[in-house]
Input
Amino acid sequence: MTEKIVSDIINSNVFVIEKNCNFIIIDAGAKVDTVKHIIENISKKYSLADGKANVLGIFLTHGHYDHCFFVQDYANTFGCKIYASKFAKEYLQNPDYNYSEGKFKIEDFSDFQFLDGDGQICLEDFKISYYQLGGHSKSDVCFLIDDEIFVGDVLIGRNMGRIDLFGGDKAEMKKSLEKLVKINYNVMHSGHGEDNSKASQDKVAKLWIKFLGR
Ligand SMILES: [Zn+2]
Output
């Protein structure tokens, strides 16, 4: 089961995914109480005392502040690790790179596990495949869980993510979109806006690949 929460302050998506009353969270732009409430409600269906839930990890799609702002609250509340690209660190450390206008930076990375390249993480019943997809930032990584992919700002509906921000790169974005088209999934969850199917997003990606190749 996947639940989407739209952050009321920065309009980014947070996803809570549940399997057998274990949870993982993708991105951290919504207040921790909102996320906790959703998790407790799902847990209640399992008649667990006090809706006690087990969050196995928080996964960050990239280091921009609107996707990470509350991540330390999440880690403290749920007592779990944060997974992010190894390139996310310089964004999280520096408000100029994460675009928080001085409001957000992380100094203590003890809860973090940094991901290098592509790979897979297994947590209880979750198999989470991850793929580095630079271009929007250096730190973009998408997560594939069963037939659902979480792409952050690489592709948002019919738009490609911005490539004019710190670490953005046209050639990298082209490579990332080519890589994305080759991944099998049914539903794409973006960092903002609505979900889309692979059929529609393959068309969108191919148009941007053409555009970027000019
Ligand atoms: Zn972004």
Q: What stands out?
A: The first helix runs from residue 32 to 44.
